[in-house]
Write a structure and sequence with these properties.
By secondary structure, the chain is α+β, with helices and mostly antiparallel strands. Helix content is about 55%, strand content about 10%. A hairpin with a 2-residue loop joins strand 1 and strand 2 (about 15-20). Helix 1 (about 25-35) runs antiparallel to helix 3 and helix 3 packs across helix 5.
């Protein structure tokens, strides 16, 4: 699987398969709502030391943004290594820059 860099996609191995992630506007809105943030500007501070819940919310949103809806719906119970999850989220944000 390859990432569409023009779209800001990233690819990461999660739950034993390559998955596409993308920080879309919809994903940002989902993250903002899911974390109870007042605006996108609050996100950077929150992600400096994310809780497991924060990581789950953000990972699910960027997975949905990349079209990985099935995994996004089960991200809280899927066999995903926490380090891999954090690296995947970081890759999605980096690809969007």
């Amino acid at each position: 699987m390859s990432a569409n860099r023009a779209r800001g996609e990233a690819v990461a191995v999660l739950a034993g398969r390559e998955r596409r992630l993308c920080l879309t506007l919809g994903a940002l809105a989902e993250i903002e709502a899911g974390l109870g943030l007042q605006g996108i500007g609050d996100l950077a501070g929150r992600m400096k030391a994310p809780s497991a819940t924060d990581l789950t919310v953000v990972l699910a949103a960027v997975l949905r943004g990349g079209g990985e809806v099935e995994l996004a719906e089960t991200v809280a119970t899927a066999p995903i290594d926490p380090r891999a999850a954090a690296e995947a989220v970081a890759a999605a944000f980096a690809a969007a820059a």
